[in-house]
Predict the 3D structure of the following.
Amino acid sequence: MPASRYVPKRRFDRNQCGRIVARLRVKQSLSQQDLAGRLAAVKWIVSRDVIKRIENGEREVTDRELKVLAKALRVPVALLFEP
């Protein structure tokens, strides 16, 4: 009898700020790569793929990361929680 292979479900609800980050990024005419550059300037080195996963809700965002995202997007942290 073959062993059953567990395949986890993909989750797209790991953060609530992802859609807001995407909206703010587009509003500022930034590509995901541009945002990665701004994040690097404030000491958080991430790839464009990480930003894509955040925006899609696939990746969780820590409190510290929220602060850095807000700084890179030049908005108050509270704005990342608005509906």
Remarks:
- DSSP finds four helices and no strands in the chain.
- The CA atoms of residues 11 and 58 lie 6 Å apart.
